[in-house]
Amino acid sequence: MIVAVQPLAGFDKLLHYRVPETLRGAVRAGSLVRIPLGHRHALGLVLAADALPEVPLEKLKPVTGVLHDHPALTPDLLGLARWMSGYYAARMEAVLETMIPGAVRDGARLRQDKYLSAGRALAAAELAALVRKAPKQAKLYEFLRQQFRPVKKSLVLSRLGATAAVAAALVKHGLAKEELHHIERVAYADGWAGGEVVAAQPPVLNGEQAAVVDSVGASLARGKFAVHLLQGVTGSGKTEVYLRAVEAVLAAGGSAIYLVPEVALTPQTVARLRGRFEAAGHRTVVWHSHLSEGERLDGWIALASGAARVVVGARSAVFAPVRDLRLIVVDEEHEPAYKQDETPRYHGRDVAVYRAKLASAVCLLGSATPSLESVANVRAGKYRLERLTRRVDDKQLPDIQIVDMRIEVMRARGLVTLSRLLVDHMHQRFARREQTILFINRRGYSSSMQCRKCGHVEECPHCSVAMTYHRADETLKCHLCGHERGAPAVCPSCVSPEIRWRGLGTQRVEEAVRRVLPRARLERMDTDTMAKKHRFRQILGDFRAGKIDILIGTQMIGKGLDFPNVTLVGLIDADLSMHVPDFRANERTFQLLVQVAGRAGRGDRAGEVVVQTFTPQADAIQFARKADFDGFAEAELTMRRNFSYPPYRHLIHHLFRGPNPEKIRFFAEAWVKKVEAALGSAVEIRGPSPAPIEKVKDEYRFQVWYFTTRTPQVVAALVKLEREFRWPDGVTQALDVDPMSLV
Ligand code: ADP
Ligand code: ZN
Ligand code: ZN
Questions:
Q1: pTM of the full predicted structure?
Q2: Are residues 136 and 25 both part of a single domain?
Q3: Least buried of 434, 512, 622, 723, by fewest C-beta within 10 Å?
Q4: Ligand 1 centroid distance, CA of 397 (Å)
Q5: DSSP string covering 74-133, please?
């Protein structure tokens, strides 16, 4: 047998190897294998088994080993790898390294530990007998029966003061099971849910939910590829619909992948999945960035072997090697976090749809504010639209009030952080012991500093972006390259002491709130405070327990949180996301408003939302006020069509960078001429032009945009041209297909 292998060793070429007799049957397409490569041994992935050799058989070197009992890539994942490599213009090796976790590639000889779990259940009389005869065994038995998942043997024994003999006796009688696991510590083992009590008992679906579950269930039963887009207002019970779909898949013996934008921000979702499925005996693998190597390998093996059939995680969980994939859920499908910003620059949602297609599975996308790409796919008849138009139990959607900050500033004759309306509302909530969340778009005390007299803004000398002021250590920091310097006391340009802080940060809002409500208990959540481990969980737990009156945070806390006692949400500066040079700015602003508003009034009392803005007439703000997604989508799609922006055409970004700007511009211009000649009307080209951030880490950046309706062909042509083009030293370039951010 001859196999075609992609080495994973910085060697971007397909090679052929023969499989020795001893490894027959173990090596398949998708297997991770050890191969000789030159004078060393390397790792490789079998892309095709029974491949045709390019050289005589006897000249082929042999595969020397196989890692893992199961192929790293299932057939659908192999197809997905090929598609990603082509569509995203990424080397096959880079794609495979993204799809297969490091812990799996290492095949790391990780330490295994002994774990105990419950075995056969005893009848009451038998248990009573055991308690009399062997109280220590009974104690261990009862402890194990209360656990959701295997517990580390050494830990349990020392905690219960039992010996290994006690455990051995239980195991001998089938009352306990002992297994080896790679787990070093079980992620989310404490079942933490921000203090929420997770009901394993599913609620009775309302009519709308039942209709969606039926529709998705029908697709699952057909066993063919289908995409459903669930557009449901915040709090309409979308998660419950996802859970039912997963349940149906498990009942039919299949596997499901459940994607969330970020696991750390969705502890409640993870807890609900575990509460529901682990109680029913299905292990749920949680896939996130903080797993130890051992945990990752263990979870991966559980999925590859079929021992676990549900995985929840961020975008890379879309590559889980599950068996018999039937369903991929993509929660908050509009989130830009699904796009990876390094090679391969894939979009988790789009990859999910494509994988579902390859696996003949169902893809269920959901959001209160679907992306316009998905809306366009519904209109084109590719996706099926499902709607949840009401909140569960007919709770009211919050009332959104817009404050015109131009008037506030005029009245106050100066900078205003909190409008009078917002302050009034906060006073009321505080008096009624209800909770408030204030959202801000930025981090730090204020993002940049600007001189009142000469307008000077302090920029990073390496990156041409404003530096961020950090009050804690009185420094200015660059968010792109990390450059740091002390904050100046006077304007570096005109020496005026009148430097003012532009923009509002969480600390500034915190101070403003302390002035108006000195007795309120405040907590601030931003990337700075969250750097401390477990702080995030702790604050959310305290907030749920009512120990905090007002929570201030960046929009990172706006996702998916469900606190019943929050009746007021304030958005301090709605404009920030609107004044960026990106055609998606309106869409982002609309999404931000709807999502943060969705945090209010999740309990029995109706919620109110106060939005502060300098441009109250903007479409995004007006449609969000009316919670009119369809109206917004219509207006925005019309604009996009007029400009032939996505979703009407695809966009490809080409970045050129290097230390010498003249050289880059010269070659980028030559390149564009070449593309024009080769591709003609297949693309519209814009640029080269300096990138919005002209310089990063002392490298100048230029960009070219391609607009096209024939993405795969154009990408393939660009890659081919790129190989032929004579690039000079000192100019690096990269393609980004379907970029999600233009700045
Ligand atoms: P969404 O994801 O649409 O924002 P969730 O699924 O989080 O909404 O639902 C909001 C709350 O309503 C959750 O606490 C959930 O447990 C509860 N819930 C969902 N469906 C029902 C139902 N049919 N009956 C009662 N409560 C429900
Ligand atoms: Zn100045
Ligand atoms: Zn910098």
A1: 0.82
A2: no
A3: 723
A4: 14
A5: -HHHHHHHHHHHHHTT--HHHHHHHHS-HHHHHT-----EEEEEE-SPPPHHHHHHHHHH
